[in-house]
Predict the structure of Macro domain-containing protein.
Amino acid sequence: MKSRLIRVLQHLIQEAHGHASQPPSCHSCSHHMNPDYLSQMETWPQLETMRRLLCQRPPIPELPSQILDDIDAVITYRNNKAMLTSSTSIAPSIVLKPNNLKTAEKSSSKAINISLWKGDITSLTDVTAIVNAANSQLLGCFRPDHRCIDNIIHFAAGPRLRDACNSLMLKQGRPEPVGSVKVTPGFNLPAQWVLHTVGPQVNSRKSPGTLQQQQLASCYSSCLDATESLPGLPDGRKVVAFCCISTGLFAFPPDMAAKIALETVVQWCMDHPATSVTDIIFDTFLERDYELYEANISELKTNLASSGSQISFPPSPPIQPRALTTPTISKARSWLQEADYLIISAGAGLSAAIGLDYTSTSLFQKHFPGFLHLGLGRLYDVFGFDDWDSPNQKWAYYFLHLNMVRTWPASKLYETLRKLAARFDDRYFVRTSNADGRFVANGFPAEKVSTPQGQYRFLQCFAKCRPDAVFPSDPFVDAALPFIDPKTQVLTDETKIPACQYCGGELTLCVRGGDYFNSGPFRAQERKWKEYVDDVARNLDGRRAVILELGVGLNTPAVLRWPNEELVEDPSNPGFRLIRAGIGASGCAPWDLEEQDLAVGIEGDLNLVVKALVG
């Protein structure tokens, strides 16, 4: 598969060189055409390069059939690494039974299930159609940096989807009207069909007008009308999954959009008692949108209860939908079951999976509203930030951040990992680049965890005046919290600003961020880690050691990612295997290692991944 990917890249790069209309990119450099250079790139950058080139590529000229076949093979192989969720495992939030529906056509009617699910719509299986929020040209988004659903669906489906859309638009001869829909096959998607609908575009400084609200409602009703004409699934169901239409770059307010979507769909079901549609899924990607739909379902339940309606609202199940057991999951699970040694290697993606997401704007807005005026919007934005209004403000942020992390609730995800580690008795070790201390806080013994990047539970002298100028952070946090204004989030007592007990100088978090970092408190555990790896390597002799790498991306690959690969690649240690799981690059293992049966990559939510691997 690696060779097919390289062949695709060579063709697309050469083609881009020959088309002045192609947007400029770094791929105009001649060395990118060198097969040796392409083969030496990591798999994730290769896939990203292919994605970007396909995103910018117009449907004309057509791709050669062999290249199209190669692209299909590459995308299918990539898609098969994703965690898949069956529509059959998603419990309904609303059920409309035949005797609840209008008219006398009840004998031929089936119950209609309306569900809410949070996940990647391209990973949803056992669905008739998924909805794509398209633009009026209907050819997909040509901007690879846009994280829109149009881009996501087109890449997962492959370039044949753009070709199909282009054929429809050439035949139509005009832009697609807002509120209407076009149907294409799903190609490499699990869904059989894609419904492309154009939502209204809103001026972000104004509220949507009546026409725009009607147009958004029309998107939903048009998609349901189109689903009626599609063939059902083998089990007799007909399932359509909606994304959030117009709430991204088209700037329709998410709260109003959720209300319109839900009301329109419920009304359509009431007006079509003999519909062949059996299941309607509202898919949200953001937690914010999921909560908005939940709130609107609750409001609908209250309104209908007072009106005497018979529509039922089943209670939310305590267990979330389970991921399908794919061949990728089966292989990884068997590796863990057969392993004699376990290494858990964890990056920022694991913290994000339990809600400590340093890229989340909603998390920052919830816990740090007093710092938004500084232009900060995510926890990551604070790294290297030095434009504070005052030291009191700076340390108030640090204290609030440290307190948020140390009081973060226990996690089912870590509990499952602890259950996995217990299978190995003393034959496991944890190495993490995370400074949040979540492993120990969730019951892992401190002597089994190494944190080479530092820990929030320590403050250190910024000047490193002496090797032991490192202090527990908890006493400083406890002393300062009562003096932080809850509204402004500024420290009101400057005597609570910590200083080095030895030199009186500035303190800072004891985490790696520059030459100032004091690694002293973490060297002992790093030695234990190295001793553990050396001991495993010496004692393999036909045994297996599995590295379970969770949420390790490309920010600091030299800390965990590359060393893990080196362990697996080392011919003197043939017993190591790598399971790499997470979102994006964090879930992409080198394909050459996969072809040698030395690694497996799993793309998806780590809560689902770990649950599927461990049970």
